[in-house]
Design brief:
Layout lengths: L10 E6 L8 H9 L8 E5 L2 H9 L4 E5 L1
Antiparallel strand pairs: 1-2, 1-3
C-alpha cells in the first residue's frame, strides 16, 4: 500500500476590519461562519478553496494575511 506524504497545510489569518451592521444577511452569516465577531477580531484558518470562497464573498469587510 502506498502512503500519502503529509503536506504542510498553508494557513491564513482573517481579520474583520469593517462592521457587519447593515450588510445583507448572507454576508453577516459568512462573517460569523468565519469565526469573526467584533471589528479587529482575527481567526486562523486552513487555506482551502471553501475558505477562500467565503473570504471572496466578504472581501470588502476583511483583511487576509498568509502565515
Amino acid at each position: 500500500m502506498a502512503t500519502k506524504k503529509a503536506e504542510a497545510v498553508k494557513q491564513i489569518k482573517v481579520t474583520l476590519i469593517k462592521s457587519i451592521t447593515g450588510r445583507i444577511e448572507n454576508q453577516q452569516k459568512t462573517v460569523i461562519a468565519l469565526g469573526l465577531k467584533k471589528i479587529g477580531s482575527s481567526k486562523i484558518h486552513n487555506d482551502t478553496p471553501v475558505t477562500r470562497g467565503m473570504i471572496a464573498k466578504v472581501a470588502h469587510l476583511v483583511k487576509v494575511e498568509e502565515i
